[in-house]
Write a structure and sequence with these properties.
The chain has 210 residues and is of the alpha/beta class. Helix content is 47%, strand content 14%. The structure holds adenosine-5'-triphosphate and magnesium ion.
Length: 210
C-alpha cells in the first residue's frame, strides 16, 4: 500500500501530515517507509532530528519523476509506504499521484489557496485519473483558523471539486511546529494535546478508507 501526501501548492502541511502519519503508523507496529519526494528534503531533515527512543521510521529521498521505477524495487519490503509528495515540479507531483493507492491532499481553506488546490486537481489529478481510471483519496483541511469567513468560502470551493474530504480537520496549532522541529509526531511530543487528538482522528479515519 502506497499513500501519497500531495498538493502542488506549497506550504499546505504535506510534510507535517506525512511525518505525523509515518510516526503514528510506526508506533502501531507498521513497518513503514517514508519517501521524501521533495528536493527540499524536509522529511529527511525531520528524521535526522528524530530521538532514538521514538519508533523507527525509515526515510529515503526520491525526488524524481521516475519515482514509480525506484519505488517498485523497495516497496515490497514494507507494510506501508508514505510519500511526502513535495510537488513544485509537475512531473514529480504527477508521479507521486500515479504511484499511490490512496492520496491525501492537504489543503488550506482560504479562497486563493483553495484556487491553487483546484488547479492542482485540474492539472495533475484529472490527468492521472484519465490514465489510471480512478484516483482514490481525500482532501484534508489543514492549518484552519476557527470560524473565519475566508475559511468557509475556501472550504466550499474545495468541496465543489467533488473529491472526498476527510471529516477530520487539522487546525493551526503551535504543537505541530514544535513536534516537527524535534523529529517527533505531535503525539510523541504532547500526547494529551488537541493536535495529538486531531492526528489520532486522521489516523483512524484513514484506516477506514484504505
Ligand atoms: N496544523 C498546523 N499548525 C501550525 N503550523 C503548521 C501546521 N501544519 C504545518 N504547519 C507549519 O506550516 C509550515 C508549512 O508546513 P509543511 O512544511 O508541513 O508544508 P508543506 O506542504 O510540506 O510545504 P512545502 O510545499 O514547502 O513542502 C511549516 O512551518 C509547518 O511547521
Ligand atoms: Mg514539505
Amino acid at each position: 500500500m502506497v499513500i501519497s501526501v500531495v498538493n502542488q501548492k506549497g506550504g499546505t502541511g504535506k510534510t507535517t501530515v506525512a511525518t505525523n502519519l509515518a510516526a503514528t503508523f510506526a508506533g502501531n507496529d507498521t513497518d513503514i517507509l517514508l519517501v521524501d519526494a521533495d528536493p527540499q528534503q524536509s522529511s529527511l531533515d525531520w528524521q535526522k532530528d528524530r530521538p532514538d527512543k521514538c519508533p523507527h521510521v525509515s526515510v529515503v529521498g526520491l525526488p524524481f519523476a521516475n519515482l514509480h521505477k525506484e519505488l517498485g524495487r523497495i516497496k515490497k519490503k514494507y507494510d506501508l509506504v508514505i510519500i511526502d509528495g513535495g510537488g513544485r515540479i509537475t512531473a514529480n507531483a504527477r508521479a507521486a499521484v500515479a504511484v499511490a493507492d490512496f492520496i491525501i491532499v492537504p489543503a488550506l481553506a482560504s479562497k486563493p489557496d483553495a484556487m491553487s488546490t483546484q488547479s492542482f486537481f485540474h492539472e495533475v489529478i484529472e490527468d492521472v485519473a484519465a490514465i489510471k481510471g480512478k484516483v482514490a483519496g481525500a482532501i484534508l483541511f489543514t492549518m484552519l483558523k476557527s470560524g473565519t469567513i475566508f475559511n468557509l468560502l475556501g472550504q466550499k470551493q474545495i468541496k465543489d471539486l467533488g473529491f472526498p474530504v476527510f471529516d477530520t480537520l487539522i487546525y493551526n496549532r503551535i504543537t505541530y511546529q514544535e513536534a516537527i522541529s524535534q523529529g517527533k509526531s505531535v503525539f510523541e511530543h504532547k500526547p494529551k494535546s488537541i493536535a495529538a487528538q486531531e492526528m489520532q482522528n486522521l489516523y483512524d479515519e484513514l484506516n477506514g478508507c484504505i
